């Protein structure tokens, strides 16, 4: 499995926000990870649409988690951003291969997908979020 850049940025943004006790802004995320403010803003819009991030406008505004980190699974995020993640089309779609009806590889790949999904669902944002000190130190190293 290879995640898209959008999913990568979404996970990084959520990890960043999980370390914050106050609101942050898109520029903070972009600066820490060395990525475009525009790309982070697009991801934040999606995260807000999905209910993971709350965006507050105006003075004192910014972005913050809309849910507690221990209630957000990594699998949930990956599924929202990636959609179906079949290793091959035949795992989820009929009539894509001449040997599909008797192919044993299809079952193997379906089980691999099930195990992968179950594992990602078992890991929460709280499990992968860095400590605030670690994040601050990483920011200083990049400056």
Automatic annotation (TrEMBL):
Pfam families: Rrf2. Keywords: DNA-binding. The keyword Iron-sulfur does not apply. One of its GO terms (cellular component) is cytosol. The keyword DNA-binding applies. GO terms for molecular function: DNA binding; DNA-binding transcription factor activity. It comes from the Bacteria. This is Transcriptional regulator, Rrf2. The lineage of its organism: Bacteria, Pseudomonadati, Planctomycetota, Planctomycetia, Pirellulales.
